[in-house]
Write a structure and sequence with these properties.
This protein has about 280 residues and is an alpha/beta fold. Helices cover about 35% and strands about 20% of the residues.
Length: about 280
């Protein structure tokens, strides 16, 4: 699908959000993507190309404080701002899609946590959700997490290193180099964002029973950012909905940018096709 179509919309508090859309001709489905902490939606072009070949459009945007969107880097005053921004982007997607096109929500890491909270609030208009290494358990000692909570109260705008680094995200040397050289990537996070994310994590666990639509969890086995054991426990504890858990052997935190990513693209594409039917003319 190549170069995305760029645009903007206005989110909560008047923040301008940068949009990217990879359009498939006569799409048989559409995916709305939420990226992770410190990165941006432009990094998902290979996924967009893979889904586009199967007939799916990919809508994405840079979260506030990320990429080309407005806002202080790595900061949010309330986690609910992310959800308000998402609703604004959903309105743009609805205007651009034809009636009856199935919609799916895909979130990675921080975006996975946002996606879970969105689907727990109200699943419509989505027919399913894809959660890639969702940030529902932090791969840090509990004492350090509690210190982050305290800093979120005492010094909310204090910025600290996020702890993200190329070697923790992927095993692919080319992707490591691209991450290090990408001017839109940042590695800072405010104590307030960390505290708000921790609060959202607790709400996600408390409301796990509200997830009653088809879900695909992608769980990298060697994830040192989002705790894989927590993701697996969360996913396998969901009752009342169709849940598939894929343990990705040897993979690091970013399965869409790690070695063997074509296999992950195929997993996602196959899962989508089971909900929309194969492409016209497919064997």
């Amino acid at each position: 699908m190549g170069i995305p179509r760029d645009g903007t919309t206005v989110g909560a508090q008047g923040i301008r959000l940068h949009l990217r859309t990879w359009d498939a001709p006569r799409p048989r489905g559409a995916v709305l993507l939420l990226h992770g902490l410190g990165e941006h939606s432009g990094r998902y072009r290979p996924l967009a190309d893979a889904l586009g070949r199967r007939g799916y459009s990919l809508f994405a945007f840079d979260l506030r404080g990320h990429g080309r969107s407005q806002g202080p880097r790595g900061e949010v005053d309330l986690f609910s701002r992310f959800l308000e921004d998402l609703l604004a982007v959903e309105e743009v997607m609805d205007r651009q899609l034809g009636a009856g096109v199935p919609r799916f929500l895909l979130g990675h890491s921080l975006g996975g946590l946002i996606a879970l909270r969105r689907l727990q609030t109200a699943s419509a208009p989505f027919q399913g959700g894809i959660l890639s290494a969702p940030w529902i358990g932090t791969a840090l000692p509990e004492w350090l997490c509690r210190l982050g909570d305290l800093l979120g109260l005492a010094a909310p705008l204090l910025t600290v290193p996020s702890g993200l680094g190329a070697e923790r995200l992927t095993r692919d040397p080319d992707m490591m180099k691209a991450w290090r050289e990408d001017p839109l990537i940042h590695t800072r996070v405010t104590a307030r964002l960390f505290r708000e994310a921790r609060r959202a994590q607790r709400e996600a666990w408390r409301m796990a029973h509200r997830l009653a639509l088809p879900l695909l969890f992608l769980v990298p086995q060697d994830d040192h950012v989002a705790r894989s054991s927590a993701t697996e426990e969360f996913a396998r504890g969901i009752v009342g909905g169709e849940v598939r858990v894929e343990i990705l052997e040897g993979r690091k935190h970013e399965p869409f940018n790690d070695l063997g990513r074509e296999e992950v693209f195929a997993l996602v594409g196959d899962w989508l096709e089971r909900r929309t039917g194969p492409a016209p003319g497919a064997a």
